[in-house]
Every structure is written in C-alpha cells, then in structure tokens.
Amino acid sequence: MPCLLHTAAPARGSALLLISLLALLALPGCGLLPAAPANNTQAGSEEGASATSDTQAAFTLEVRAPQDIADYLARHLELQRFQSLPGLTANELSRLLGAADANARELLATLGYFSPTLTVEMTETPGSSHAPRAIAVTVEPGPQTQIRQAHITFSGPVAETTQGADTDQQADQVRRVWSLPPGQPFSQSAWDGAKAQGLRTLQSQRYPAAQIAYSRAEVDADTHLADLSVTYDSGPAYRFGPLRVQGSQRYDSDGARRLARLPTGADYSEAQLLDAQQRLASSGYYDAVFLTLDTEASDPQAAAVLAQVREAPLQKWVFGLGLSTDSGVRWGTDHIHNRLPLVGWRAVSKLALDRKTKLIGTEWTDLPDDGGWRWFGGAQAQRETTGSYQVNSARLRAGRGQSTERIDRNYYLQYDYANSQGLQAPPSSTALSMNYSWTGRYFDHPNAPSTGHGLAWELGAGTTLRPQRDPFVRAMVRWLGFVPLGKVALDGGLPRGSRLALRAEGGVVLARDAAQVPVTQLFLTGGDTTVRGYAYREIGARTDNNLLYGGRYLAVASAEWQRPIALRGNFTDWESTLFTDVGAVSDQLGALHPRVGVGAGLRWRSPVGPLQADLAYGVQAKRVRLHLRLGFTF
Predict the structure, then answer these.
(1) Is the pLDDT score of 491 beyond 90?
(2) Could you say which of 96, 209, 334, 499 has the lowest number of CB atoms within 10 Å?
(3) Helix and strand counts by DSSP (H, E) for the chain
(4) Close Cβ partners of 186 (under 8 Å, ≥ 6 residues apart)
(5) Is residue 353 classed exposed, middle or buried when 0-12, 13-18 and 19+ CB atoms within 10 A define those classes?
(6) pLDDT tens-digit profile of 575-602?
(7) Do the strands 548-549 and 541-542 form a parallel or antiparallel pair, or are they unpaired?
(8) Are strands 389-403 and 407-421 parallel, antiparallel or unpaired?
(9) DSSP state string for 238-304
(10) For residue 238, what pLDDT is reported?
(11) What is the Cα gyration radius of the chain?
C-alpha cells in the first residue's frame, strides 16, 4: 500500500489541517506517489478507469472524475486490488466499501484536494458477464490547494554564514531552485520533490552530510492555501583529503591518485568527485570505479575519498567494425598492454583497414605526474589515397601532454616521411618539426552538445630533411560554436531549443615555393565532417593536368540550423537540419576557389552520441551525396 497523507473529512466552517512530513517519513515502507497533471475532462461510464479480467471478476470498478484524477485513483485505490479475488463475501465487500471513502480522500489529499465530495455506490448486476456487482466512485475534487508561502531556513555552519552581511551562495541557490514557489499547486509528490531537490543542492558542495531537520505543510482547507516550512541542517563543511584505493593489486595506487587528479584540500564538490571517478574509469586501467567521501571516520577538513576499483586485465584485444560514406567499411583491432615490461608505460597498438587507408601504429603513454603532465611516444605506418596519389607514409612522435577537465595541451617532436606514387607524383620527402597543440572544449555535454563552443589550434616549426633542407612553419585553427535560436514549445510540454551550429577551420604552411614539405603536412578537405556534397578529401590544390594534391592553404566554414522534430504533439529524439558548407584549398592564398555544399539532414540522439544522416548537393561537383556519421568529436 502506498504511503499516504492522512486527512480528516471535508471541513465544515473554518478548519486548519496540519500535515507533518516528519511523521510520514518515519513510517516504514513510506514512498512517493506520482501526481497526475490537472485535466478537466470528465470520465463517464465508458471513459472512466476500470479494470476487468478474462475471467469473471468479483466486481467492476468505475471512477467518475476528471480524467487525470480518475486514472490516479483507479491505479491506487485499495478497492481495485480485490476485484479478482474469488469467493469475496458480502460482509467482506461491505467492509471494503466502508474503507474506500477514507482511502480515496487520503489519495486525493496527496494531489492537493482536501475538500472533495465523494460518493461510493454498489449495484447488483446478476445478468452481467463481467461481474455480479458494479461499484462506482464519483468524485468532485473541489479546488486544488495552492502554495501561499514557502519558508526555507538553515541550521549548522551554513546558517552561521547566512547570519552575516553576505548571504551564503549555496543557501541562496537552494532558495533559487525551490520548485514550489507561491502560486504553484500543492501535491504530496511535488512537496517531497522540492525538499529533496533542495537537499541535493546543499549536498552537492561543501555539505555532503546535510539532511532535513524539520519540515511541515500547513493546509487551510477553507482557503485552499498551503504554508510550507523546511529547515536544512547542513552538517560540517568538508574538504577533500587523501585518496585511498581499495581493490588495487596489479597497478600502483599512487598512479591512481595521479590519474584521478582529486583536488586535495579543496572544498568538497560532488561534480569534482564524479570527474575524478570518470578519469579513473576512462584511463583504461580499471573496469569499474566507485568513489565515495568518508563522512564518518574522517576529519571533515581532510575527509578521505575511498576508491573501490576492479582492475582491467594486463593485456586485452579489442575488435571493431565501422561504416562511413567517406571510406566505406572499416575494420580495426587494438591491442592494449597496461604495463609494458621495464618502462611500465601503457601501450595501445592498432591495425585499421578501410577502402582508402591501411594503418598500423602504436602509442605509449606514461602515468601523469602531480601536475597532470605525462610523457608519450608513438609510431605509425600508413598507406592512404591522398588526392590523385597513393601515399606511403611514416611518422614518429614523442613529447608531453596534459589533459584537464576542458583543456588538452601537447608539445612534441615529430618526424615525417612521405612517398607519393602515381603520375607526376612529387618526390619523396622527410621533415623534422617541433609542435604545440591546444584544445579547449566548453560544451554543455561532451557527446551531444547543444550550447557552448570549442577552439583548437596547432603550431609547428621545422625543416625538411630530404630531398633538401628547407625551413617551414605550419599553423592550423578550428572553431565550433552553438548559438541558441529560441525555444520550440508544444502544448502541455517543456520547450525544446533550436540552434545554429557554426564551424570554421583554417590552415597554412609557410615555406619557399620549391620546398618539398611532406604531403602528410599539407591540406585536403571534403567529406562527412568538413564540406558535405563532396567525397572524402576531394577538395585540394590542382596541377596543370588537373591532378589533385595537398595544398598549403586551407579555409572551411559551415552553418547548420538544427531544430527538434515533434510527432503527434510530442517531441522525439530526432532533429532536422539545414546546412551550407564552404571549403577551399590551394597552394596560393589568392587562388582559393570555394567549393559549396548545401543540403538537409536528420539527427538521432543515440546513447553514444548523435547519429547523423545528411543529403548534400555539391554545387561545383554537380552531384548529390549521402553522408552518415555516428558520434561527436572535437
């Protein structure tokens, strides 16, 4: 039986009903009851909620009330549990009818109706094929109680701050997020939800041991108004102490601490705790991670964080199969070694094959230091279609990198080798360069953003080594931003935002005209993630014989309107898009000739990120292309 709010019979004259949720919370098995939205549609004998079964029931039950109330009562009335009970005697049924009135009033009180008019009637139906009796519960709910005022107070250390001239920001936030302001309808579930939301807000920062010290709702049945009072006891303010790893056998516990990057000594923050947990879980060293703050045995000013972990295997193989319109079917396999002999680094070696690219490579990374910086090194060999040529290339890279919540930084030394094959192919070349890259992600969601922006740039300086030495500089920048365009609203539902996705990308390689910079350092564009309406890397510089090759200058821009899709008056997980992409590549800055793609598409918000399907027309190519992509990366 659900936990109910006890009320008296309808008030006659002035009456004040006191509802103490402290008493409710003390009841064993007490739970929340969902409140149905208000609706004035009447439910008659055919529309009212009823329950029947294939076999003959003891009685039929019909609730005559506004539809939302009828549905709610039909689900939760004690009476409905006995409909199919065989051998129900007249005395037992009489007792159930006597309790039905009080039961219905308690249920209505949880929805904020404290002065209903109720009638419970039973009719004998001996000739019915459904049941020998019919019971009808007729309800006139009366006015729903509204919130008159909500009084929110605090005790404990957070209250000491609020007594001063400067109000505690966290206490202010609890009041700002309060979901039952004056004028809102009162219901038991809304009241419980408002208190729980305030408690979660208080517990999310500094006060993880906060609790509700006192709460009461006073309902005046004559005026149909409710006065709410709640006091939160914040408990002591906590700060992060040391990280204690439980379950670690193969991997160093100090390495887990450096991977988690928990801000020891800082004020407790639930978000920072979850971020540290996510960093450990995504490190590859652990299959399962759960972080908790020790609020019982620890000093609040240095509370230990307990990390319960299940370690990943020392080695494992991962196989994958993918599909894209750019490169067709893609097959790949990764071998992961979490602790290489002698050096102790983590190695991820991969083999990837698709229609245009064959690649084999490995990347080794050290555990980060206390500042989050780690050493890395990598090598790869690749055969790829680049413009009109087949290019065999190799790359060696070594440096240091740092990844924080929003920003990635890397500096590294890189060696490049490229050998192009085909008609009038450029000579093979090698180069050595020093590079720095920076990426900042400021999106509202890492996998399916709808607001925010991202910025990334790379800068490298080096020299070609063969066929002759020539200095060069390479720079690249890209940006993606989401601009809200307002809300799309439907009757009876929350509005959903539409937005404009803007993208820009530019690159340049500066060197003397005769310098043979490896083609892997030059630019090509076109395809699913750049200029739609064109094949993968179809846009580049052209020789006098119209052969395509990588150019020294790149410019790309895109504008896309994303709008939610509604079906039968309800929003779905789909969005529609209209877009325009523009891109150009050339060996001369003044010779950039834009290629334009226009089209429309669909987005589905899948659990692993947006699934994108776009139909684009390449204006200069004069053809239509389908582009498919899964996930979001920046």
Answers:
(1) no
(2) 334
(3) 8, 28
(4) 112, 144, 145, 146, 147, 180, 217, 219, 226
(5) middle
(6) 999 999 999 999 999 889 999 999 999 9
(7) antiparallel
(8) antiparallel
(9) -BEEEEEEES-SSS-HHHHHHHHT--TTSBPBHHHHHHHHHHHHTTSSEEEEEEEE--SSS-GGGEE
(10) 95
(11) 34
CA-CA distances (angstroms) from residue 308 to 245, 246, 267, 545, 574?
6, 5, 22, 64, 38
| Per-residue pLDDT at 52 | 39
Answer for the pair 317, 297: CB distance below 8 angstroms, yes or no: no
Tell me: pLDDT of 430 over 70.
Answer: yes
With H, G, I as helix, E, B as strand and everything else as coil, classify residue 15. coil
Whether 470 and 515 have beta carbons less than 8 Å apart is answered as yes
Within 13 Å and on the Cβ side, how many CA atoms surround 178? 22
pLDDT (tens digit per residue) in 108-151: 999 999 989 999 988 888 777 778 888 899 999 999 999 999 99
What pLDDT is stored for residue 55 in this prediction? 61
Closest CA relative to residue 474, chosen from 492, 489, 484, 461: 461
Helix 188-203 with 169-176: angle, nearest 10 deg: 160
Give φ, ψ of 69 to 5 degrees: -70, -40
563-578 burial by CB neighbour count: b if 16+ within 10 A, else e? bbeeeeeebeeebebe
In this structure, how many other beta carbons lie within 10 angstroms of the beta carbon of residue 48?
21
Helix %, strand %, coil % of the chain (to 5):
15, 45, 35
| 138, 108 contact by CB (below 8 A) | no
Strand partners, 87: none
Using CA atoms, how far residue 377 sits from 113, 252, 347, 408, 461, in Å, is 69, 21, 9, 16, 19
∠ CA 608-609-614, rounded to 5°: 130
Distance CA 25, CA 20 (A): 9
Token pair in block for residue 160:
């000491």
For residues 540 and 592, what is the distance between their CA atoms, to the nearest angstrom? Answer: 10
Q: Which two tokens stand for residue 250?
A: 């193969």
C-alpha to C-alpha distances, 289 to 283, 286, 305, nearest whole angstrom: 11, 7, 12
Q: Is the link from the previous residue into 467 a cis peptide, with omega within 30 of 0?
A: yes
The H or E element containing residue 26 is: helix 21-26
C-beta neighbour count of 621 within 10 angstroms: 19
Coil vs helix vs strand at 178: coil
Q: How many residues does the chain have?
A: 634
pLDDT of residue 489: 62
Return the structure tokens found at 216. 């009461």
Instruction: Using CA atoms of 416, 422, 427, 429 in order, give the dihedral in degrees to the nearest 10.
Output: 0
Report phi then psi at 116, rounded to 5: -80, 160
Task: Supply the pLDDT for residue 511.
Answer: 96
